[in-house]
Each structure stands twice: as structure tokens, then as C-alpha cells.
Specification:
- By secondary structure, the protein is α/β, with parallel strands linked by helices.
- The chain has a domain of about 100 residues: Rossmann fold (3-Layer(aba) Sandwich), CATH 3.40.50.
- The protein is about 30% helix and about 25% strand.
- The strands form two sheets. Strands 6-7-8-3-9-10 form a six-stranded mixed β-sheet, sandwiched between helices. Strands 2-1-4-5 form a four-stranded antiparallel β-sheet, with helices on one face.
- Helix 6 links the parallel strand 7 and strand 8.
- The radius of gyration is 17 Å and the shape is globular.
- Bound molecules: adenosine-5'-triphosphate.
- Adenosine-5'-triphosphate binds next to helix 1.
- Belongs to the ABC transporter superfamily.
Length: about 230
Amino acid sequence: MIQMKNIYKKYPNGIVALNGLNVEIDQGEFVYIVGPSGAGKSTFIKMMYREERPSSGQMLVDGKDIGKLKNRKVPFLRRDIGVVFQDFKLLPRLNVYENVAFALEVIEEKPQIIKERVMEVLDMVGLKHKAKMFPRELSGGEQQRVSIARSIVNTPKIMIADEPTGNLDPDTSWDIMNLFEQINAAGTTIIMATHNREIVNKLRHRVIAIEGGLIVRDAAGGDYGYED
Ligand SMILES: Nc1ncnc2c1ncn2[C@@H]1O[C@H](COP(=O)(O)OP(=O)(O)OP(=O)(O)O)[C@@H](O)[C@H]1O
């Protein structure tokens, strides 16, 4: 469902972040992206939801070259892709319910469906009882749960996470990983950049290691493989 063919990315400042990268990811896979700082992990991930465009090469999602997608079509692509960040990126003036509902309101879903679906995903992440609270009133782990709820509310086929446990303590990180496991078990493809060696070594999935903008290792059930 995701194919990168000879992806090369040079930023305007001249830095080459991806240097001819080839990879295929199938529906339902769980893939960790690992590698040293500055290796190109975030850039790799940004290609998949069209936050960045390749300088050359093809970035195919379901056979469509999203690198060539017109800007006005990007919101349609994003309906199929949920994104979770290290710093949650919740809207501070909206409460938990509203932060999650927002994703459905922008696609003009029916109010009754929005209500049901939002409460369903808040229940799934264990935050139904905090629906009226604001992000600043929540712990980091709770904020990440809200951002996960937001990312799955429109049942995307792909979920992309850039260091989702980067700001969380170890116990909370495991709770968040349990949620990702559940989401993946329901059929959603998960692609997660991480520096969390314990998680990668314990919850085994495909590991793609990037160094210097190239894939240097790609192993099913692989380990983290770095000492950082
Ligand atoms: N918007 C940008 N403009 C210019 N250069 C960038 C930009 N974003 C990233 N880079 C550069 O591209 C290279 C790869 O960065 P990237 O963020 O993809 O690495 P990373 O593997 O995600 O690193 P980290 O683990 O530290 O988050 C780095 O040299 C970085 O400085």
C-alpha cells in the first residue's frame, strides 16, 4: 500500500535528508523506523503524509503518487492517514471532545455520527470521563491518548507516529504502545519512528533502520540495534 521508489530529498538549505530510498510497506504491517539523530527518520515519515515532497522519486500510497498531489487534494489524503506526534499538537482552546470531533467536523460528518464516534474512540483510549477537560488539565500520557483518539476517529488505513513516546515516562509509554498494538490488531498499518530501544526490542515488529538518508537494515521482528 506504501511504496517509495528512489526517494531523494534535498532541503532548500542544501541538506540531503533522503538519498535514494526504496521500500514497500503492506496493509496491516507494524513498522518501526529507527536510526541516529539526523538520519532522516522524520523526513521519511513526512513524505508519507505529504508534509514534505520528494525532490525526486515516487511516493506511492495505494498506487497514487502523492508527491504529485495538488495541495488542495492533500486534505483528502489525510483522511486516510492518522498522524501522532511527540508533542501531541492538541488545540489548547478546545476540550478533549472538541479536539477529537474536529477531524470529523472538517469533513462535514453528520452531528449524530460525530457524537457517537468521538465517544467511542474516547472510550477506547480510556478518556470518556475526561471529555470536557482541556489539554492543559491532562497529563502527558492523557494528552497523547487524546491525540491517538483524534488520529483514529475517521478510521484511517494508515497511522503514522513520530516519536510518540518521546515525552512520556516508561510506564505511560507502555500504555500508549498497548493502544498502538490494539489499533494495529484491528488492521491499521502503523509506521512509527522511535528512539525507544526497550519498546522495539520487546514488542517485536519489522524494523527499518535509516542512516545518512538510506535504509541500512530492514528486518521482520528485528531489534533496535543501537546503543544510544
Ligand atoms: N525543514 C528542514 N529544512 C532543512 N533541513 C532539514 C529540515 N528538516 C530536517 N532537516 C535536516 O535533514 C536531516 C534529517 O533530519 P530528520 O529530522 O529527518 O532526522 P531524524 O532522523 O528524524 O532525526 P531525530 O532523530 O533527531 O529526530 C538533518 O540533517 C536535518 O538537519
